[in-house]
Amino acid sequence: MTQENKIYGDLAERYIAAWNETNADRRRDLIAKTWTETATYVDPLMKGEGRQGIDAMVAAVQERFPGHRFALTGKVDGFGDHLRFSWALAADGQPALVKGTDFGHLIDGRLQSITGFIDQMPAPQQ
Amino acid sequence: MTQENKIYGDLAERYIAAWNETNADRRRDLIAKTWTETATYVDPLMKGEGRQGIDAMVAAVQERFPGHRFALTGKVDGFGDHLRFSWALAADGQPALVKGTDFGHLIDGRLQSITGFIDQMPAPQQ
Known about the structure:
2 copies of one chain form a homodimer.
Chain A (H helix, E strand, L loop, with lengths): L2 H18 L3 H11 E8 L4 E3 H15 L3 E12 L2 E10 L6 E10 L2 E11 L6
Parallel strand pairs in A: 1-6
Antiparallel strand pairs in A: 1-2, 3-4, 4-5, 5-6
Helix pairs in contact in A: 1-2, 2-3
């Protein structure tokens, strides 16, 4: 792994760690280390603006999916200020409930934006 | 296919058609229908700025890979002003030489930016 690849990998790991961190203080600290102050997040289901907005969005997802954790899947890929990686959300020991791929734009090594796409969603309840 | 999905699919198809169009007039026409005037393209190997810059970049790739064509692979995915799709570059009847995934940002239904990631590259020559 080159030094540059390590920077992208570390950033993606901090990003996932923030999604999994249910302690509010530690989560805000991770978000500050990962995102710029004016960062934005958007995917087909939700949006967040600024670190506070992103923190509130992450907290809401944790409340919606108690006992679930995010994990990186496959390899983290980046060049210049561009990043992509895939992830899965699963309950402990269960198959993934949701899978997605996130594209990021970096400024000074922090995330300025993430655009998330969904690769797998639960089938609608009958 | 919903109406919205058709818009994303049509845009991605015009984008690929422009990469394959070796007639300069028709290619510029496709690029104008697909990209905004101030559009930008970046991937790990090259950059293009504005319609002219993007046209020059596409022409250079066509010169580098004569007899090869781009094709969409998998399904085109989009929401709001966000688009992603995967593609393969192959010579007629041959396995793919290069594969990638492009992530786009739209303004008024045209591409304002494409960030391209490489999924498969030829192994370096020994």
